[in-house]
Amino acid sequence: MVDLAESTKMAVKTLTANKLRSALTMLGIIIGNASVIAMVGIGQGAQRYAAEQFESLGPNTLFIIPGNDGGRRGGREVPRTLTYEDAQAIASQVPSIAAVAPQIQSQQAAVYGNRDTNATVMGATPDFSVVRSFPVEQGRFITDEDVQRRTRVVALGSDLANTLFGTTNPIGQQIRIRNISFEVIGVMEAKGAFLGTNQDDVAIIPITTMASQITGNVSLYGTEVTFISAMARDDQSINAAQFQISNLLRLRHRIVNTDDFTIQTQRDALTIVGNVTGALTIMLAAIAGISLFVGGIGIMNIMLVSVRERTQEIGLRKAIGASQSDILSQFIIEAVILAVIGGAVGTGIGVGGVSLVGAVTPLQAGVSPIAIVVAVGVSGSIGLFFGVVPAKQAAKLDPIVALRSA
Amino acid sequence: MQTIIRLKDVSKVYGEGNTEVKALSAVNLTIQSGEYCAIMGPSGSGKSTAMNIIGCLDRPTSGRYDLDGIDVSRLSDDDLAHIRNRKIGFVFQQFHLLPQLSAMENVMLPMVYASVPLEERSHRAEEALTRVGLGNRLNNRPNQLSGGQQQRVAIARAIVNRPVLLLADEPTGALDSKTTEEVMEIFAELNASGMTVVMVTHEADVASQSRRVVWFRDGQVLHDHLDPADLNQRAIAAS
Lengths: 406, 239
What we know:
The complex is a heterodimer. By secondary structure, chain A is α+β, with helices and mostly antiparallel strands. In chain A, a hairpin with a 2-residue loop joins strand 6 (174-177) and strand 7. Chain A has 14 helices and 12 strands. In chain A, 44% of the residues are buried. Mean pLDDT of chain A is 86; it is low at 70-76. Chain B is of the alpha/beta class. Chain B has a single domain, classed as Rossmann fold (3-Layer(aba) Sandwich). Helices cover 36% and strands 27% of the residues of chain B. Chain B is built from 8 helices and 10 strands. The two termini of chain B are 35 Å apart. Classes of the chains: A alpha+beta, B alpha/beta. The A-B interface holds A 2-3, 6, 10, 13-14, 17, 312-313, 315-326, 399-400, 403 and B 52, 55, 57-58, 77-78, 81-82, 84-86, 90, 92, 94, 96, 98-101, 105, 109-110, 112-115, 157, 161.
């Protein structure tokens, strides 16, 4: 039996003697591997991106949303059941909560001088800035006094401030929202986009001002809010907070059967996002895996042709003393070399593609070293797997017949 | 004198039942070490089958074949491959050199399968090529060599593992008369230095350079002649 180094040398010699064919054979594996690496890398990047987005909402955050999942899935109108008073009750009665931020949200035109733009107007309380980790950069935020006195003051998101004021200092200026004048008291720090929604295109006003002068709608139970964010004291008290808020709201809403609200923790949201992007990654990887499989079949195809073409060579090798296993290993090694080199080149291209995506999009796409090892290992195994059939065919050739074949 | 080839009642049958063809029937043949023997016969005479069995490329259906004192008639494919590697040097009509390899690498090939260490390989390959007069063509590829030179590379490849038997199948069939002479000279030299040579040929003048002619017909040995003086006449009569 010829040793491995010798067989490898022979295989390399044969492969380099037929460069074009070797390259074309590798192409399938190159494309397959590049797409596996790229798809998994980009998928994981998307997963990380989504996770970061949810983390940016603020730590230990719970979201209390009116209605329940079932109702919303049915496409019915969301019942307007959460009120400002609910939020106040949570703040005063739930011990595991550090801060509560009820919020009323509405799309309105914001006007300064001759500039106007459409912005998200948020009615909020002072705790909003805390709960959502959204500090003021310039000026001040809404105070309790603003909320009590329903003052017409506004804190602008950085983008909105920029759109309306450009280089002018906005503090102390008046803007108009729904034709009501508001004094700009502060500008928020830039927060970036959340799942594609610009969070810096907002105008934040006291929640009481919002309820009485902009949206104006009061539900049966009190001042209706869009949703309530709450911050647990620490990450250990998130579950307790969820339980306590749930109990409190059931009592307040006199619920016997189905809740008319839903509490989602940031962790829930992360899990959902993780599941979705994870499934997406698996799907992408499966599609790419199919092309890797097709690449393997390509190798088998070319190797079968190669065995037929090299019948005389095989006959000669057998005549001068090559055993069946010598021939078998020679052809398998050829297939494995093609697959491994193809795999390495494909991985290189895949990594390049992933870093390109990372450079031009907000996705922090990256390829783990394990993925590379696995990809090259898998393509090597594919070479082994698809090399066996042609190699066996070569090994079984009768030297007499093989030598006579023209 | 040592016996290299001993065929005893060797038969070869192809197919079964109605399609059964008897290629060899009860052939007895003994060739001693140092002999130079030509095997002749019309096509279908069984000379190719005999050649395949002598070359350990095929096994007899019945009978016994001893090569260099080893009964090889019942060995497995891989054992036969080993025997071919160590005991027999093949020269074919079509040379069968690997086009992607240089003359040196072609000659080294049998030693690869004999697991000869690399240094000794190149040393022995160079020696063999020098012996057939190609010491200055070591790194040429087959397509850079003439037909006669290619056949000489093939002869070097055949002798490099120091076989006990040099088996040539129509070695001059693809050569012109001038290069035929060159190649035949090399066979004569090798035989003179003690190599046992068995050559299948249909060319009477090639056979006439041997010292023994075995004539096959209908799967049997028709003549076994030690003096090829009247060979030409016989060849004409037979064809």
